[in-house]
Amino acid sequence: MASLITTHVLDTSRGRPAEGMSISLERLDSVGSWQEVGGGATDVDGRAPDLLPENPLVTGRYRIRFDTGLYYAGLGTSTLYPSVTVEFKVNNADEHYHVPLLLSPFGYSTYRGS
């Protein structure tokens, strides 16, 4: 079964996918602590299609942490953001949640994709 949470990172400063970026996926548990439930790295197309491969999707709050500092360090580029965290809410565990990141060394944006 494919992951119901996916992401795609595009490096807008280079006009290319952000290949090899480390990503972690966490869920807020019932006592208010963040628990890692998945993760990985972006592929050659900047995609991470299997963030939640073994764990079932449940409703609640999630966050994706992108290691932008390590990614840009590998390119020899400084960045204002050593990491980017995108927190979002899963209201329906049967839906697909695609959370792309558009990134440059000094700015980023995100949205719910399909």
Topology overview:
Blueprint: E1 5-11, E2 16-17, E3 22-28, E4 34-41, E5 47-48, E6 60-66, H1 68-74, E7 84-90, E8 97-98, E9 101-104, E10 107-110
Parallel strand pairs: 1-8, 1-9
Antiparallel strand pairs: 1-2, 1-5, 3-4, 3-6, 6-7, 9-10
What does this structure look like?
The protein has 114 residues and is mainly beta. The chain has one domain: Sandwich (Immunoglobulin-like). The protein is 6% helix and 44% strand. It has 1 helix and 10 strands. Strands 1, 2, 5, 8, 9 and 10 form a 6-stranded mixed β-sheet that branches. Strands 4-3-6-7 form a 4-stranded antiparallel β-sheet. A hairpin with a 5-residue loop joins strand 3 and strand 4. The longest helix is centred in the middle third of the chain and has 7 residues. The chain starts with a strand and ends with a strand. The mean pLDDT is 95.
What is the string of SSEs from the N terminus onward? EEEEEEHEEEE
- How large is the count of helical segments? 1
The CATH class label is: Mainly Beta
- Radius of gyration (CA) equals 14 Å
Q: Helical proportion?
A: under 10%
Q: What separation lies between the terminal Cα atoms?
A: 17 Å
